Input
Amino acid sequence: MSIHGEKKSLSLVVTVYNQPMAFEFILAALQRQTMKDFEVIVADDGSGSEIEEIVHKAQGKTNFLISHVWQADEGFRKNVILNKAIEKAETDYMVFIDGDCIPHCQFLLDHWKERQPNGVLCGRRVNFSKEISESLKLEDISSGRFEKISLKVLIDGLLARSSNLEDGIRIENSLIQRIIRFRKGRIFGCNFSVEKRLLEEINGFNEDYQGPGLGEDSDIAFRLELLGARLIPLRYMALLYHLYHPQTIVGGENKRIYERIVSDREVICLNGLRKLESVQSAAIL
Output
């Protein structure tokens, strides 16, 4: 519960691993959210002390409740910390972003207003180049200036450095949104939302994955669809701005795990929120 005793409407999970400046940017962007009724869970996969210090300084100063869930740095264990964040969440609806993604001021409101029973809202992101990412200042975030596709960013996009600039356009028109939503959505681990109960039904994120790619998006999308959830595109809403990093390479072991899950049509993961000996044992618990 919050410091005032009331339950918030949604939980925003921010997955972080170091990058304190990017985290500061996110907190500044969250201060600008038009929706105020949310909690923030910082899912920390083994960062040093800087992230914890920023959280402590923010607690009591922000207009939202913030908590910090940390685990020791033992390699890439994003799915493990995500499961801990699910257990920590005090609300029934969850939004997920990464620690290098800055949300538009309407980001949480869009996820909240567009939610549907048995639906998974699948947002997208603008990819800023290395040059644009390194030029950003805290004032750009707190003022909202970063949300505008400036001439500098547009030229950067034309030079094929920044990408997906079209996903920085916000369109609320109901007709356009109905047309878009005839298509199937695709989960990006950095921008999606879902009812907490659906995550619990598939037993959360699969902790077998020990590297980036597939495990935090493709795997969970496959399981949720088998469960009967609908992947709903949230394009041109819930805008998100991704800071530059080198392209992620999906490891061979991750591919083998995912291919097995698809082949077996495995809805409930054994190594998730609960540690199960078999899928049959899930029905007993």
